[in-house]
Write a structure and sequence with these properties.
Elements lengths: L1 E2 L2 E2 L2 H17 L14 H15 L5 E5 L7 H11 L3 E5 L3 H14 L3 E4 L6 H4 L5 E4 L5 H14 L4 E6 L3 H8 L3 E9 L7 E10 L2
Parallel strand pairs: 3-4, 3-6, 4-5, 6-7
Antiparallel strand pairs: 1-2, 7-9, 8-9
Helix pairs in contact: 1-3, 1-4, 2-3, 6-7
Organism: Rhizobium mongolense
Function: Specifically methylates the N7 position of guanine in position 527 of 16S rRNA.
Pfam family, one: GidB
């Protein structure tokens, strides 16, 4: 199987397929994603989320902010299972979604855990990480607020944020309060979307 042009092992494919089946089942009772996207879960959610790990492969400790339906947190945790190393910490304050995420991680054998807490409390529970992810959560300025505690503790930590067509305006707004280095990765799934890779974050005001 190929995902975004990269080969995926049979074991990882099986895990992804099982997760999609769980996601489809649970989506009927709780709001895990926009209903309009559920008919194209593989492309709109799985492939899109897989880009994060594919941009930064290896056995890292991840923190996924506002994990929701598991994108990209569960997908990252599934890829880490193939490495038998690394860990994904999924932060989701909604208890119903957190219950789904725990089931998904357990049944797929993914390398991750769920913290049903507010994002602001995350650094107290997960003191350090090498990578941070978020998808469809908040604007870049707010995401920098969330990420700052981890990125101050480890200057090598990098953040990967999915953004849509208005990303340039979000960058301009964030630069009013933050200094950071930035790499823009064109999405291979959505033509008007990017993944912003942020590092060397520092508060200006």
């Amino acid at each position: 199987m190929e995902l975004n042009g990269q080969s995926v092992s049979r074991e990882t494919q099986d895990r992804l397929e099982h997760f999609v089946a769980l996601f489809s089942k649970w989506s009927k009772s709780i709001n895990l994603a926009a209903p309009s996207t559920l008919n194209d879960t593989w492309q709109r959610h799985v492939a899109d989320s897989a880009q994060i790990f594919q941009l930064s492969p290896g056995p890292k400790r991840w923190v996924d902010l506002g994990s929701g339906g598991g994108f990209p947190g569960v997908i990252t945790a599934i890829f880490l299972a193939e490495l038998c190393d690394g860990w994904a910490h999924l932060i989701e304050s909604n208890n119903k979604k957190a219950s789904f995420l725990r089931l998904a991680l357990r049944e797929t054998g993914a390398r991750g855990s769920v913290h049903s807490i507010r994002i602001e409390d995350g650094p107290d529970v997960v003191p350090s990480c090498e990578a941070i992810s978020a998808r469809a959560l908040a604007d870049l300025d707010k995401l920098c607020d969330f990420a700052e505690p981890w990125m101050l503790r480890n200057r090598n930590t990098r953040a990967f944020f999915h953004k849509g067509r208005d990303y340039a305006a979000e960058i301009a707004k964030a630069r009013g309060r933050w200094g950071f280095d930035l790499l823009e990765h064109q999405s291979v799934v959505e033509r008007d979307s990017v993944i912003l890779e942020i590092f060397n974050l520092q508060r200006l005001v």
